[in-house]
């Protein structure tokens, strides 16, 4: 039994980490729309009484942008970053010998696809600025790992995808066995569920697990599916579903499977399909923030479906069509932080 436990997303948290778009990020071409997207997202989070740690380039400008949100619940952190996807460069939290540890993994922008020099230093700089509790920071930067690529049940099981974690541009194309050893050593995970199928058109993360399938309480997996035979992703999502039926818990039991609908196709200005998915939701204490896409019937069905897996949680929908224009969604833009990590 490992002395390390990778905390599940549905366990208690104190803060949600976000980064505000600015002119130096990839949002520059639609900056007013992007800023409004984040304003609405932060307002929704604070509206449920949850604290936000907001990375920003200019604190005064950020406060003006967020003036209608509950200021008592927002901590502003002036710091440099390339972009706003805190899920993938934010800290991952584990319990290590009954102490909280904030793990700082390497981030290279999803396999060297974009600039990441500043994103990769955010956690290190937070520690240097004294914004992390003493002795919580742990340097794991010799291994590339994005938060959106791993799902934890808090009991030693991790679910991930082979397309992502075996990408040659991340950790040199390690074998599953080699990566299993890394996940055991760093996250304490002794049971790894490798998903070999499933992808979303327009996704540039190499099939992050948080776009496809999510671990939920009570040995449940919530996943993206489609019954549309004409959808180009139908065969892959069907193969993914078939593999999910074969997954077993560490005790050898099958998982309860809950299938989310696939949003109707959404395209960018050049006609390229964007990776819309309802699986990219955030669990934050007793609330689930779920992306919506101005598709009333599908949005409502997705919210009702998530309630099957989380019957005691309140589900709050947030329109994420702007986030989608940069090929991400709600979970990608947020990172949950348990109490005892940030010193704000």
List the helices and strands and how they pair.
Layout: E1 4-6, E2 15-19, H1 31-47, E3 51-56, H2 59-65, E4 74-78, H3 86-89, E5 92-96, E6 99-106, H4 109-112, H5 122-128, E7 137-144, E8 151-152, E9 157-161, H6 162-165, H7 168-171, H8 176-187, E10 191-195, E11 213-216, E12 220-224, H9 234-246, E13 256-260, E14 282-284, E15 287-292, H10 296-309, E16 314-319, H11 321-324, E17 335-337
Parallel strand pairs: 2-3, 3-4, 6-7, 9-10, 12-13, 15-16
Antiparallel strand pairs: 1-5, 2-17, 5-6, 8-9, 11-12, 14-15
CATH homologous superfamily annotation: L-arginine/glycine Amidinotransferase, Chain A
The CATH topology turns out to be L-arginine/glycine Amidinotransferase, Chain A
Oligomer: single chain
From the alpha-carbon coordinates, what is the Rg to the nearest angstrom? 19 Å
Tell me the series of helices and strands, N- to C-terminal. EEHEHEHEEHHEEEHHHEEEHEEEHEHE
CATH architecture: 5-stranded Propeller
**Mean model confidence by pLDDT:** 97
Q: CATH first level: which class?
A: Alpha Beta
Instruction: Determine the N-to-C terminus distance.
Output: 34 Å
Number of strands: 17
Q: Share of helix among residues? A: 25-40%
The structure class reads: alpha/beta
- How would you sum up the major sheet? 4 strands, mixed
Beta-strand content estimate? 15-25%
What is the molecular shape?
globular
> Which stretches are poorly predicted, pLDDT < 50 over at least 5 residues?
none
- Spatially, the strands of the biggest sheet line up as 1-5-6-7
Supply the number of helical segments.
11
């Amino acid at each position: 039994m490992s002395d390390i436990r990778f905390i599940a997303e549905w366990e208690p948290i104190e803060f949600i980490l976000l980064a505000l778009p600015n002119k130096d990020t990839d949002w520059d071409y639609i900056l007013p729309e992007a800023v409004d997207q984040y304003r609405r997202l932060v307002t929704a989070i604070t509206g449920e009484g949850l604290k936000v740690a907001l990375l920003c380039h200019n604190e005064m400008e950020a406060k003006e942008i967020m003036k209608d949100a509950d200021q008592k619940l927002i901590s502003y952190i002036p710091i440099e970053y390339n972009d706003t996807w805190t899920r993938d460069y934010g800290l991952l939290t584990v319990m290590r010998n009954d102490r909280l540890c904030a793990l700082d993994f390497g981030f290279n922008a999803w396999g060297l696809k974009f600039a990441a020099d500043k994103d990769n230093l955010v956690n290190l700089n937070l520690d240097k600025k004294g914004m992390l509790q003493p002795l919580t920071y742990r340097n794991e930067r010799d291994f590339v790992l994005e938060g959106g690529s791993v799902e934890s049940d808090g009991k030693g099981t991790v679910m991930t995808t082979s397309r992502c974690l075996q990408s040659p541009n991340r950790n040199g194309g390690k074998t599953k066995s080699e990566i299993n050893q890394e996940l055991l050593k760093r996250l304490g995970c002794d049971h790894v569920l490798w998903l070999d199928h499933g992808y979303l058109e327009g996704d540039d993360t190499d099939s992050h697990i948080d776009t496809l399938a999510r671990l939920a309480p009570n040995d449940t997996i919530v996943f993206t599916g489609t019954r549309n035979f004409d959808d180009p992703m139908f065969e892959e999502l069907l193969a993914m579903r078939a593999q999910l039926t074969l997954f077993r818990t560490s005790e050898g039991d099958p998982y309860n499977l809950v299938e989310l609908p696939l949003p109707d196709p959404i395209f960018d200005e050049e006609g390229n399909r964007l990776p819309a998915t309802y699986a990219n939701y955030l669990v934050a204490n007793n609330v689930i923030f779920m992306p919506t896409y101005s598709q009333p019937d599908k949005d409502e069905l997705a919210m009702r479906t998530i309630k099957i897996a989380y019957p005691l949680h309140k589900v709050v929908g947030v329109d994420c069509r702007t986030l989608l224009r940069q090929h991400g969604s709600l979970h990608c833009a947020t990172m949950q932080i348990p109490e005892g990590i940030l010193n704000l």
